[in-house]
Amino acid sequence: MSKDMSKLLKQAQRMQSQVMKAQEEFKKQEIEGSAGGGMVTLKLNGGNELVALKINPEVVDPDEVEMLEDLIIAAYASAQEKLKTMSDSTFGSLTSGLNLPGL
User: For the chain, what is the mean pLDDT?
Assistant: First the structure.
């Protein structure tokens, strides 16, 4: 194995270890999304699992169920966007230092 290939392999192994550690830490994070000025809030963990949902009683109106549904969907979308931004930031920084020839 050439010296460059050996160096590249060690770099890839180091990066794999860093990515695995970052993934474990990332799963422990909680991201909050909200809608309707905070009338509906929810939390996702880094594994994209819903872990909490809070609905302000003022927004619960039997005649406005569709609005409540829309607020829940909007709060989820808000948390998803934050989760993606956090993921890009965490994992993008890990791979940015990888110097792969030809890429």
Answer: 88
pLDDT tens digits along 49-96: 999 999 999 999 999 999 999 999 999 999 999 999 998 888 887 666
* Buried b / exposed e along 6-34 (16+ C-beta atoms within 10 A): eebeeeeeeeeeeeeebeeebeeeebebb
User: Does residue 55 contact residue 35 with C-beta atoms inside 8 Å?
Assistant: no
In a domain, 102, yes or no: no
Residue 101 lies in a domain: no
Range of the domain at 46: 3-96
Q: What domain count does the chain have?
A: 1
pLDDT for res 103: 44
Q: Are 59 and 68 in contact (CB under 8 A)?
A: yes
Is residue 103 assigned to a domain? no
Tokens linked to 34? 């909200």
Q: Which residue has the tokens 């406005």?
A: 64
Task: CATH number of the domain at 77, please.
Answer: 3.30.1310.10
